[in-house]
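Supplementary Data S3. Sequence and structure tokens for construct A.
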Amino acid sequence: MRQPRNLLLCATAAPASVAARSRINRLIVASAIVIAASGCNSRLPVIDDTAPTAPSNVVVGDPPPPLPPVPAALVSLILSPAAVFGGSGATGRVVLSFPASTPGLTVALSSGDAAVVVPTSISVAAGATSAEFPIVTSPLSREITVSIGATSGERAVQATLALWFRTPPFIASWTDPGNGQPIDGRRVTKSALAWRASCRGSGVFVGAFEGPTSYSLDFSAPQGTALIPGTYENAQGIVRPLSPTLPTLQISAPGFSSCAAPEPSRFTVTEADLIADQLGTVRRFTATFEQGCRLAARSTTIRGEVVVVGIAPTNVTDGTRCIVPR
């Protein structure tokens, strides 16, 4: 607000008789200053032009004008899982830096090999920060890695999808770390330096060791029964003591080991050609498995499958002979 300066209050030195006949002085309010008016010429307040003033077109209390929206940019492409058997499907997800503005953001998609088919484009809806799209693969007689690309404006990102084929022996696993992180796919093929498989009592052990990478899988039916083809629900992890009436699934794989408090786990045996000899020879064994483990506030899940044919036994000669159907 402008500030008054050099304000002069003026009054005449009139005799009392004149003052008595004078009209009652009027009060004039100017810039919150009360000036006593009299018969003399009073000076009006002088405005100090150096004082800051508000622009005449701004009303105090009005909200500031809205900021322009921040443009969304493509930041990543996530494939889940990162490896599949040829002929199986996967899912891709494009992720933006900010929610897409109206009417949405179009992202172009591409595949580096005809064995992997993706849509030509995907639209991220207005207000969303991501969108998913299907990935279709074809069966192959060899293993390949295919690059999948996503482009929007000047931004381009890539991710790779591994295609596997089933040639035993192998162990394949997909580890989901939770919290929306990418699913990690791994495989041990027949190039492994050492494979072992054996049957003891109601269970089958399969191990694969390739340098620092090793897998160890233990499948077991309820105690005293043969491990035959079928689905086994509520499989126990490494809890102690083990219940003799429940199946058991114990896993040791890169980035995952069975925990003491597993979430509902299961496995399905499709082939179990076992011999009740001294070594517990496993001629054929095929199974899929799934085990979850709650770690603090999140869950980690591992899924996979195993196929072994004619694998050398573990050379362990003690323990209960393999139980086979009569």
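Construct B, processed identically:
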Amino acid sequence: MKNAAGVLSTGFATALAILGVDALRGTLAGRLHKVHDESSVYALPPPEYIKVASLGYRDAVASLLWASTLYQYGDAVSHNRRFEFPTQYVETVLTLDPAFRPAYRFLSTLTTMQVVAPTRRQVDETRRLLEAGTHELPSDANVWGAYASFMMFEGAQYLDDQEKSRWRVVGAKAAQRAVELGFVIDTLSVTGAIFLERAGERDLAVAQLERAYAVAPNDETRERIAAKLRRLRADDALARVERAHKATFLTWRSRFPWVTESMFVLVGPQTDIARCAGLVGTVEHCTPGWPGFLAGAPP
């Protein structure tokens, strides 16, 4: 009887233990799932360590790490989670390959297009990395465009009004450079000029609109710029840019109608090859520039 009672008692205790563990497992699983949703761990070593560990295959490792970064970002967004380490991943990619253009173009998206606002540290780190990109790739329109857009819009939106104004002035100057290099959003410099005007930089805004007019790709954009110049009472500047554009247009249509206007502007004024021959050739004769040409100097 004692043995039977002991077995019964042991069986009852075991059943209770199983039920208790099962109930506890559900609670623990819920807690674990919640922690997974709210936080993640940055597992990579410092960028310089990864550079050494790449064994010279830096470009390949940078590409693999970039693909992993995009996957993690997409997974976080699809599950309504925060992607916590965008600048750290991108900095590692750029340490491996400073000329990795996609990282500059999409860094702002990785930082700001999330379920929660970025921290101030992330905003500052994004600015630092994008600014470094303009030094690393000074002739890349998309890098300059990404930097300008972040300074004027995506990053500036998280700042107070006073600091936002300062960032937008910096972004406006970068925007002009981006448009000059052929950035696809040709009105970016026009927006930049508006921010410059609001910051009290009227003369700089006028100068920027002049340069934007010179590289405007169509009549609609030129008319928009002209309207801004009229509002700023910059009639002299408007007359100057319209005269220069007319001279360029007439020369293009009369001499080189078989090429596009943008190609003609890129190539520049026609050079008399005979004037560059032998010892008589000079830098002034062989490399005419647009300013002298538009002012009436002979080609």
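Residues 117 and 158 are 8 Å apart (CA to CA). The chain has 15 helices and no strands.
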